[in-house]
Write a structure and sequence with these properties.
Blueprint lengths: L10 H29 L5 H28 L2 E3 L2 E2 L7 H5 L1 E4 L4 E7 H23 L5 H23 L4 H5 L7 H19 L4 H5 L6 H20 L7 H29 L4 H15 L8 H20 L16 H19 L2 H7 L13 H31 L8 H6 L1 H4 L16 E3 L2 E3 L7 H13 L1
Antiparallel strand pairs: 1-2, 3-4, 5-6
Helix pairs in contact: 1-2, 1-4, 1-9, 2-4, 2-5, 4-7, 5-7, 5-15, 7-13, 7-15, 9-10, 9-11, 10-11, 10-12, 11-12, 11-13, 12-13, 13-15
Organism: Viridothelium virens (Speckled blister lichen)
Family: Belongs to the ammonia transporter channel (TC 1.A.11.2) family.
GO molecular function, one term: ammonium channel activity
């Protein structure tokens, strides 16, 4: 017995949206999990991956219980929709619509739309974690994720994508340069000040423990971006193909420019360097992918490979930046690159590209619509301002109202994964195990109790190192 598909369903579009959503999900798990685990010191490998893993799961539950409709449902305020559940079967099976924007008739079910938008929300929280690796209290992170999703992400998504005031003004954010990257970069950067820095020894020496593993994650990130940008026309359209091509053009150009600057100034190509160039290219093309021509993607890649390079290697080393311990530099790779890409949309969006994406905008300055530049600046300022307020507000609420420390204790910072999760990333030897019972990575007396003598010994070893 086979199910009968409704007349409005396009099997090809539905298949593409589910595939694109899976590509984006793979960017987070395992893509960013591998990048984070490989780019940090060995003692932080598990905690770094775990922060991403947890965020992915928590965002999904919040998303289907109330957050999807707050981001894409009926308008409650000019910047947010009415929250509500997205899990009733009659809702999941009906045709996808975006009521606040008037965009309706997508030839796939609401369940597909809800999941597709979820993976975008999830990766935003995962990206914030990149700024706070190596010191954030995991319990504080557990609380922060649903609060920030509720108070920040849903607002940005509704305002720009869901029919809110920035959407009505005409701000263009093709696939999340503002909603995802600018918001996560801003939140990660300002939050790093309120959480506090890593140990000084970790800041002085934070050598990646597995660069090849991180590169594997980068490969998933790059190719997964085909779903990130290729899925946003909500149909397997010519614009989806153009977006995928432009994404790869800009990323390759940014990669090569960053590598060239490393060779020019540091005399050697750096793998860690080109990873940053790859990421800034992906981020900068995201708000523009389906609305610019191929040559526009080349220019965006040129800018994203050079301007963030200057920011990271020159401004990032100034005294003022010492107060912001942004572990993986999301202020450069996401905040700056996202705002840069959004600004360049105002310059290089074409009228034909906007029409192909279903927008009424008459392109950007290149097609005589200079007003689009100012609209893009307004959109960026709103996202930055909203996150500069709400991210510290949430963190201070967790710290002073809920009485949950934002930063780990000094001993936990010395030990790392074994103190926080009772697990270690690489179990080639068992010298830290002082008792005969080891159950699923837990060291103890057989009842799950931690051998505190062993943990103290690890801390003393860390101090000596």
């Amino acid at each position: 017995m086979s199910a009968t598909a409704p007349s409005w369903l396009n099997n090809g579009d539905n298949s593409w949206q589910l595939t694109a959503a899976t590509f984006v999900g793979l960017q987070s798990v395992p893509g960013l999990m591998l990048i984070y685990s490989g780019m940090v010191k060995r003692k932080w490998a598990i905690n770094s991956a775990f922060m991403a893993f947890y965020a992915f799961a928590m965002v999904l539950i919040c998303w289907v219980v109330y957050a999807y409709k707050a981001a894409f449902g009926k308008q409650m305020l000019p910047f947010v929709g009415v929250p509500g559940p997205a899990v009733p079967m009659d809702y999941e099976l009906e045709q996808s619509i975006l009521p606040a924007t008037g965009l309706s008739g997508q030839a796939f079910p609401m369940s597909t739309m809800v999941y597709f938008q979820f993976v975008f929300a999830a990766i935003t929280l995962v990206l914030i974690a990149g700024a706070w690796l190596g010191r954030m209290n995991f319990l504080a992170w557990m609380i922060f994720v649903p609060l920030w999703l509720t108070l920040s992400y849903t607002v940005g998504a509704f305002s720009i994508w869901g029919g809110g005031f920035l959407f009505k003004m005409g701000v263009i954010d093709y696939s999340g340069g503002y909603v995802i990257h600018l918001s996560s970069g801003t939140a990660g950067f300002i939050g790093s000040y309120f959480i506090g820095p890593r140990l000084q020894s970790d800041r002085d020496n934070f050598t990646p423990n597995n660069v090849v593993m991180a590169l594997g994650g980068c490969g998933l990130l790059w190719l997964g971006w085909n779903g990130f940008n290729g899925g946003d026309p909500y149909t397997a359209s010519p614009d989806a193909g153009a977006a995928v091509l432009n994404t790869n053009i800009a990323t390759a150009m940014s990669f090569l420019v960053w590598m060239s600057l490393d060779i020019l100034f540091f005399k050697k190509p750096s793998v860690i360097g080109v990873v940053q160039g790859m990421i800034t290219g992906l981020v900068a093309i995201t708000p523009a992918a389906g609305v610019v021509a191929g040559w526009g993607a080349v220019i965006i890649g040129l800018c994203s490979g050079s301007i963030p390079w200057v920011s990271m290697n020159i401004f990032g080393k100034t005294r003022i930046m010492h107060h912001f311990d942004d572990t993986l530099g999301v202020v450069h790779t996401h905040m700056l690159a996202g705002s840069l890409g959004g600004f360049l949309v105002g310059l290089f969006a074409t009228a034909k590209g906007c029409a192909a994406f279903g927008l009424t905008n008459n392109g950007g300055a290149i097609d005589g619509n200079g007003r689009q530049v100012w609209l893009q600046i307004v959109g960026a300022l709103f996202v930055i301002g909203w996150n500069l307020f709400w991210t510290p507000a949430i963190l201070l609420f967790i710290k002073y109202v809920l009485r949950v420390p934002l930063r780990m204790s000094e001993e936990e910072l010395l030990i790392g994964d074994e103190a926080i999760h009772n697990e270690t990333a690489y179990t080639f030897e068992d010298k830290v195990v002082r008792t005969p019972h080891v159950l699923h990575g837990k060291y103890g007396d057989g009842n799950g109790d931690i051998d505190m003598e062993a943990q103290h010994g690890i801390a003393e070893d860390a101090k000596r190192d």
